[in-house]
Design goal:
By secondary structure, the chain is of the alpha/beta class. Helix content is 37%, strand content 15%.
């Protein structure tokens, strides 16, 4: 650490010594008060990205007691454990040698590794210079001072550190701070209801019960940092409990999607669709990872959806046009467009979605889709373009909201059949109204091999109503309702070879 390195590294003259002394004092003070500066001081090779700054700002508040419940969600292999499990405990002991910490992760051996790493930090000369009171027991020290791979004591103080695998025993152990880092080892584990219930029971009846106050300013604090694996994982259950009972401590959440999807987080410096840390996971890497949509949305975007879906089950959809699948029927009935519009254009606005649907008997077929962020002018152009491409889709159903009235007035003389639809019930009610038709196999989608955007469509439906977006769901439910309620008027078949090339994703 440069602030406490030997003076011999500088030129041996008064001016250099004075400059060094000033730098030494300032940097040492910074390392004593800032988690980020402390981590860099202990590990000069630690590469800092903007999300590490955000994490450390939250950890500083946690150490000061301004936050008593903190969750940090981030993709794998981007440095969270270096901060939370290897350096935070040492930083806490430096400020408070009487503190007691319980640290847990998915297995005993991994927990022991974190324990040893914390000891190495606290054994360093730099650390001893920064925090001389936080001295850990020497190996082989007799008496009441203990040091091994699962526990160490702060010599001459009341401080103590215990590490344990999630699910392990904490009988007789107490703490003021509980740190849980990656409680889940694998997808196979977390997909087991028995495993998830066991974790939850351990947290409620073992880990949380070991936290206490001591009458000297120590209040129970919990930090959970993890990659989201499942919609019913430990974080989800804890948050559901807090939501159901506003009288218990509420949680501060710091979450980083691998690719930025919206501009809601004003502290996120990235442009839309920019990776979290391009040096570690590039945009090209992200595009490859997206192929497994469920894993991508949970481990990388930190928004896991139910494996099968909440209202619209992933396994219900039927497909046409792919290898070994039926072709799109030629004699279709009642072609329509269904549009979900928005008021304004911008990177943080909702998407505009326009879909072409048709029916044959009880079956409904999604033919094509436009999806993009578009202002008023681009919305009218998209409707005109889709109408020109599919002239048989005579009815253009637009929800009676957003730009609906203005679009209708603007296009009335050039585009026939624009119909404003008053929404019946909430978005959830409308989705539930058509879910039975999907389950019955009466809703067909173009196979993703001919329409790659269908993968995102299915994922949005599966995540609904808890996903980031619902524009495709709204257009879909509106279309199926209209096709169900309308009479089966036969129209002249139009040439359709599959979803159009102009579709935006």
């Amino acid at each position: 650490m440069s602030s406490i390195s030997p003076l011999s590294r500088l030129e041996d003259d008064k001016e250099s010594r004075l400059t060094y002394d000033i730098m030494s004092d300032a940097l040492t003070m910074k390392a004593r008060t800032s988690m980020l500066a402390f981590t860099r001081a202990m590990n000069p090779n630690f590469r800092i990205n903007w999300h590490h700054v955000r994490i450390c700002q939250a950890l500083d508040r946690f150490v000061r007691g301004e936050i008593s419940r903190l969750m940090i969600f981030v993709q794998p292999q981007v440095g969270k454990s270096e901060l939370v499990s290897r350096h935070l405990p040492a930083f806490i002991f430096g400020h408070d040698p009487d503190h007691r910490i319980i640290s847990a992760t998915y297995g005993d051996s991994f927990a022991s590794e974190f324990n040893i790493d914390v000891q190495r930090v606290m054994e360093s000369d730099d650390y001893k210079t920064l925090f001389p009171r936080a001295r850990i027991a020497e190996i082989g020290m007799e008496g009441r001072w203990v040091r091994n791979s699962s526990r160490f004591d702060i010599v001459g103080q009341r401080g103590r550190y215990h590490s344990v695998g999630v699910g392990g025993s904490l009988t007789g152990k107490t703490g003021y701070t509980l740190i849980i880092d990656d409680p889940v080892k694998s997808d196979e584990d977390v997909r087991s209801p028995t495993y998830r219930e066991k974790q939850w029971r351990w947290f409620k009846t073992v880990a949380r019960t070991r936290l206490r106050r001591d009458g000297q300013g120590h209040i129970p604090r919990i930090l959970l940092t993890m990659t989201r694996w499942h919609h019913d994982d430990l974080a989800a259950r804890i948050l559901a409990e807090a939501k159901a009972n506003p009288n218990i401590p509420q949680w501060t959440i710091v979450s980083f999607p691998a690719l930025r999807e919206t501009l809601e987080d004003q502290l996120d410096p990235r442009a839309l669709d920019e990776p979290l840390w391009p040096e570690m996971v590039s945009k090209e890497d992200c595009e490859e990872l997206k192929a497994d949509s469920r894993t991508w949305n949970s481990l990388y975007q930190q928004r896991p959806a139910p494996e099968k879906g909440q209202i619209l089950n992933r396994e219900w959809w039927r497909f046409y046009g792919g290898p070994g699948q039926p072709k799109l029927p030629l004699e279709l009935q009642k072609y329509i467009q269904s549009w979900d519009l928005t008021f304004t254009e911008g990177p943080s606005t909702d998407f505009v979605v326009g879909q072409v649907w048709a029916r044959k008997g009880a079956d409904k077929y999604l033919i094509d889709q436009f999806r993009g962020r578009a202002g008023f002018k681009k919305q009218t152009e998209a409707i005109q373009r889709l109408s020109a491409q599919y002239p048989g889709a005579t009815g253009k159903y637009i929800e009676k909201a957003a730009n609906g009235h203005a679009i209708q007035e603007t296009l009335r003389t050039s585009i026939a059949g624009i119909i404003l639809v008053p929404p019946k019930g909430s978005k959830i009610v409308r989705a539930e109204a058509v879910a039975s038709q999907v389950e019955a196999g009466n809703v067909w989608l173009p196979d993703p091999s001919i329409a790659p955007w269908v993968t995102a469509f299915i994922e949005e439906c599966a995540e609904f109503p808890f996903g980031k977006n619902d524009d495709q769901v709204d257009a879909f439910s509106q279309a199926v309702i209209q096709l169900t309620d309308s009479k089966p008027t036969t129209v002249v078949p139009i040439s359709i070879t599959g979803p159009s090339k102009w579709t935006k994703y």
